[in-house]
Structure formats: structure tokens, C-alpha cells
Automatic annotation (TrEMBL):
Subcellular localization: Cytoplasm
The protein, known as: Cytidylate kinase
Domain of life of the source: Bacteria
GO MF annotation list: ATP binding; CMP kinase activity; dCMP kinase activity
Organism: Lacticaseibacillus pantheris DSM 15945 = JCM 12539 = NBRC 106106
Domain Cytidylate kinase residue range list: 3-212
Gene (name only): cmk
EC numbers: 2.7.4.25
Broad class of enzyme this protein falls into: transferase
A GO biological process held by the record: nucleobase-containing small molecule interconversion
GO cellular component, one term: cytosol
Signal peptide: none
Residues involved in ATP binding: G7, P8, A9, S10, A11, G12, K13, S14, T15
Keywords carried by this UniProt record: ATP-binding, Cytoplasm, Kinase, Nucleotide-binding, Transferase
Family as reported in the entry's similarity comment: Belongs to the cytidylate kinase family. Type 1 subfamily.
Length: 219
């Protein structure tokens, strides 16, 4: 069984996807972390994030692995733990440019399909239901208001000691949504057969329960 969870930035996809995967005993794949890792690689190498050729040339030697931990998973870039580095603001704000490069998308889409081929999976991102796993048995498109998403990001950031005003986060989230929805290759878009869940006024538990019910319906 494949569960695809797509939606705009900070809609709660990864929190929910992780919990659903744990409850079902499925593998969880965070595709945003993969785009973030490519972005981090470019920033660390001093490559302009719009330089498609230079970034593409580095992809064959870029290894991205997920390593399970007691409370989730680590993201490894060529064996180094980059779980925290890929959540920093510079990576967050440059990831949309890197993810608009068609060769980057083709490369990561293939890696994501390989991961999914191994068995039951919950995968979250922007184009999972439309492009990566078009035959997924369950597709969810998760949305929430920009204000609520900025509020959640603000609280997350506070826990990590990152200090960005909520108004700035609202602008960043709106800008990222715009770039992700208007790019030419696999833009953020609800799949025709996806179930839309607006989480603005829902608790994490309520969303998880709804997805588990949808999953049970399809079994
Ligand atoms: O989900 P997350 O916010 O970590 O994703 C970071 C960025 O990676 C997104 O803003 C988007 O540009 C890109 N992304 C994508 N396709 C995916 C997952 C993420 O383009 N499947």
C-alpha cells in the first residue's frame, strides 16, 4: 500500500505522515528533506542555486540516506547527519529554486520510486500523488491557512531556538507556495483522486485518525 501526502509548506504533512507510518508500521519517506539536501549541497559548495548545470553535475556523487532513530529519522548527506542543517532558513528559502530544476526533479523522483518499491510506504511532498506515485492507493492533499501555517512554524522555530517574526514567516510561506505552484515541472497541485483535508482547525490526532480511516477503507 502506498500513501501519498501532498500539500503546501508547513501544512503539517511530515508530522502527520510520520505518525501514520508509525501506526501502520510503514516506511516514511520525507521527499522535502531530499530537495533540502540537494539545496544544502549547493549552498555548501558555493554553487548558485539557479545554476542547473552545476547542481546537476554533482548529483551522481550525492548520497542521501534516511537513518531511523528512537524519535524519528536522521537525514544523511554522504554519510554526514544534516538533519538540523537542512531545516535552517537559508536552505528553506532556497529549496524552491533548486526543486524547480527539471534534472533535479527527475533524479530525486527516481530515488523516491526506488524507496517506494521496497514495500508499504507513506511519502510526503508536493508531487507524490501527481508524479512520483500516481497509482498510490490513498492520496491526501493537506492544506491550512497561511496564518495558521506561519503560527505552527513559529512555534517549531522557537523550540529549535530560531527567531523569525511570524509576519516574516507568513511572507516566506506565501512566496514558497507561489514558487512551488507555478514552476513548470511537477508543480504543487492536488491530484484529481486526492482527498483534501483542511487542517486549519484540526488537531494532529484528528488528522491522523481521518487518514487511518481512509486507509482502512481502501484495504
Ligand atoms: O516539505 P518541505 O517544506 O521540507 O520541502 C522543501 C521544498 O522542497 C519545498 O518548498 C519544495 O520546493 C520542494 N519539494 C518539492 N517536491 C517535493 C517535496 C519538496 O518540490 N516532493
Amino acid at each position: 500500500m502506498q500513501i501519498a501526502i501532498d500539500g503546501p509548506a508547513s501544512a503539517g504533512k511530515s508530522t502527520i505522515a510520520k505518525l501514520v507510518a508509525t501506526k501502520l508500521g510503514y516506511v516514511y519517506c520525507d521527499t522535502g528533506a531530499m530537495y533540502r539536501t540537494v539545496t544544502l549541497m549547493a549552498l555548501r559548495a558555493g554553487i548558485d542555486v539557479h545554476d542547473a548545470d552545476a547542481i546537476t553535475a554533482r548529483l551522481p556523487e550525492l548520497r542521501i540516506d534516511f537513518r531511523p532513530t528512537a524519535d524519528g529519522q536522521q537525514v544523511l548527506m554522504n554519510g554526514d547527519d544534516v538533519s538540523l542543517a537542512i531545516r535552517q532558513e537559508d536552505v528553506t528559502n532556497n529549496a524552491s529554486a533548486v526543486s524547480a530544476i527539471p534534472a533535479v526533479r527527475a533524479d530525486l523522483t527516481q530515488r523516491q520510486r526506488d524507496i517506494a518499491a521496497a514495500g508499504n510506504i507513506v511519502m510526503d511532498g508536493r508531487d507524490i500523488g501527481t508524479t512520483v506515485l500516481p497509482d498510490a492507493e490513498l492520496k491526501v492533499f493537506m492544506v491550512a491557512s497561511v496564518e495558521e501555517r506561519a503560527r505552527r512554524r513559529f512555534l517549531d522555530n522557537q523550540a529549535k531556538g530560531i527567531d523569525v517574526p511570524v509576519e516574516v514567516l507568513e511572507q516566506e510561506i506565501a512566496a514558497r507556495d507561489h514558487k512551488d505552484s507555478t514552476r513548470a515541472t511537477s508543480p504543487l497541485k492536488q491530484a484529481d483522486d486526492a482527498v483534501r483535508i483542511d487542517t486549519t482547525h484540526m488537531s494532529i490526532d484528528e488528522v491522523v485518525t481521518e487518514i487511518l480511516l481512509l486507509h482502512d477503507d481502501r484495504e
